[in-house]
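Researcher: Quick one. four chains, 708 residues in total.
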Amino acid sequence: MTGSGKLTTMVTIKEVARKAKVSVGTVSNVLRGSTRVNPAIRDRVDRAMKSLDYHPNQIARSLKTKQTHLLGMVISDITNPYFPRMVRGAEDAAIEHDYLLVTSNTDHQIEREKRVVSVLRNRRVDGILLVIAPSDGDTEHITNTVASGIPVVCLDRVPRGIRLSSVTVDAVRGAEMCVRHLVSMGHRAIGIITGPMQLQNAIDRLQGYRNILAEAGLQEDPTLIGNGDFRTESGYLLTKRMMLAPLPPTALFVSNGMMGMGALKALKELGLFCPADIALAVFDELPGNESYSPGVTVVAQPEYEIGYRGAKMLIGQIENGEPAEPLAITLNAELRIRESTRLRIGTTRSHVRE
Amino acid sequence: MTGSGKLTTMVTIKEVARKAKVSVGTVSNVLRGSTRVNPAIRDRVDRAMKSLDYHPNQIARSLKTKQTHLLGMVISDITNPYFPRMVRGAEDAAIEHDYLLVTSNTDHQIEREKRVVSVLRNRRVDGILLVIAPSDGDTEHITNTVASGIPVVCLDRVPRGIRLSSVTVDAVRGAEMCVRHLVSMGHRAIGIITGPMQLQNAIDRLQGYRNILAEAGLQEDPTLIGNGDFRTESGYLLTKRMMLAPLPPTALFVSNGMMGMGALKALKELGLFCPADIALAVFDELPGNESYSPGVTVVAQPEYEIGYRGAKMLIGQIENGEPAEPLAITLNAELRIRESTRLRIGTTRSHVRE
DNA sequence: TTTATCTAGTGAATCGGTTCATATATGATC
DNA sequence: GATCATATATGAACCGATTCACTAGATAAA
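Model:
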């Protein structure tokens, strides 16, 4: 477990001081650029640093200043195409303010989330961006973190029961836009594949769907509601099951992108085509969507902006202290209509209900 | 620029010691679990830590031990779908050995690569995984890093001129497999879109293409070679240009995934279908490839394994010291034949040359 | 009883920066 | 030339762990 360690010794501020024939305090002053240092001396120090390939030890600095300029980011899985743009947004904001971003995966498991948060606290990150894993009110690790003085900003979804700063998307409205579009294309039998009901945004997307059914005077049909978990596999299985049922939907609304990919694969295997056989709409933009056929109608989230503004908010709280009330930004999703829902259907198709 | 800092003071080892009525040395011993500590005392200390929500300060530990258990990873862009799996592989290996992975983007810019490497050195990462940016022999920042005792492992491609440990893919062979497949499907006019010629793997992919043309006794045609830069836009533009030329190819081999997405988009806009109008094959798996139609024939790289084995190799070098000779692992790519190249064509089609 | 042999716990030095009270040099003023 | 004001440079204490020479106490052997 313990390694053999470095062979070479790193250049320290002391060696720079000796080489430049000044005190360590002066070298430090040159580094910070703060107090006025005689230009001639500053020059000597700069030269010494360059010639020694000196890299100031951020570890030592952090120990003294109690600021690591590290931001922790906790997501479920970087290989889920939803996250890279969010991470990139956060990283860009971090860099603008001279922070370094550390990203860790939880694979949707609350136990891993706890471990990751603990590691980040050991590392003394200055703040944490958190995309929570589904759980039943298991939030002590989060409240402990906030209580210890580390700001936390939730992205994409917020835990129930506690109040935290957050950047989220108006999922109800996004789902409404999308399902309303399906209704406007003549669909009456609209299926949905939901996310895990422990997550607020999964609930919201279902709620949006329900709102529009009600608005359109349509009866809710339990056989058209598939209970997924935001993973590809569940989208695949539930789509197959629903499409092979006696009365399949004419349109399908899938609650997230991973499940959307699964649904597409299922349709492909079943030999069903969009939009001729079924209209498909997905919450979340799909990777490569505009390159493929058919383009899929989606509710696109501003992932980059979620990450970017989340990090900005977090840094604000780090540097200006936590606000009395948690901040909450809600962004809008955007409906992007593509071929997969372009075919207007009559209300009289044989397998349409009512 | 400087913040107001923490309001709350973190719990330190000293406070734990006081609460447990032992010395700090003993608390440290309990933490490390190393020397034999009286079970009763160990218990007292454990309880004190728990009740104080104590998180040992990794910063202080690192300062003393000169090991941060941090790994730096430098990639071009996490939103390029090629990288997430590689990052995930590296992270999984890191976690297995209790390291934390820090990933940074360079956007293919050598200047940003230098800055990022410098930041990682300030942070005293124990080692660096590096996917180099294209440049003309600008490697001093890398040799300096290695010279200072920080192991570096290159992934996916190696800089020319210096010898470093690496994990790469046999790109010549991958390209050969792919182009040979196109030839075997009857194609004679096979186009290629290349990557930037400063990158070894771009050169290799072109080389594989040339090898097979020679093997098949086909003349190389400059109008069928598009000089891309591994970005979507260039794949898009070059595909359009090539397909609108007087003598377009019957098959197109695209040197990486991003450009492959651009090529697909171009074909879609031109109203050309795969494989009826053109056969398409891409180096790199495409996101969601098996969900869409047509599935695209690809040379799939083991991205996860590249990251995983690279991190394992790096950790080996950190803990056992650098090997006398740099290590080099070469992995194999895999040809995945899908619909986009499934149509066998005769050699007599009018627009086929020779 | 005295001495030797262990074990488990102690506490001071240390890592490489920052910070700030103090020392020194420079120049201005009389 | 002496005095004071100002501008810079110095160096010791400190951050929170680890580490190790040392001590105290217990047990065994002489």
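Residues 1-7, 347-354 of chain A have pLDDT under 50 and may be disordered.
Researcher: Thanks, that's what I needed.
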